[in-house]
Amino acid sequence: MSWYLLVLAGLFEVGWAIGLGYSDGLSRPLPTLATVVSLVISMGLLALAVRDLPVGTAYAVWTGIGAVGTASLGIVLFDEPVSAARVGFLSVIVVGIVGLHLTGGH
């Protein structure tokens, strides 16, 4: 169950990171509210996950999901640059996340 909470926490991390882009420096009320809510949910779920998972593993997976998800959505939503190298390095992060899951113990 902790891994599911951790993945969900990572997805909410993507939500708040993308929300920052839409909030225009936290100056737009509705996107700012959505960003803050996503941040609180993400941290809360991460806190629940580390009850059973090693904090180093959980944090690395959480930030990895956030990094890959945010970079991927940045390409789609904000027309950020895409290249074979960028996709390759994001893939390396995914491999790291899977590896941590396989060796994470829980």
TrEMBL record:
Subcellular location(s) per record: Cell membrane
InterPro entries linked: EmrE-like, Small_drug/metabolite_transptr, Small_multidrug_res
A GO molecular-function annotation: transmembrane transporter activity
Keywords: Cell membrane, Membrane, Transmembrane, Transmembrane helix, Transport
Keyword Hydrolase: no
Presence of keyword Isomerase: no
Protein name: Small multidrug resistance protein
Organism: Haloterrigena salina JCM 13891
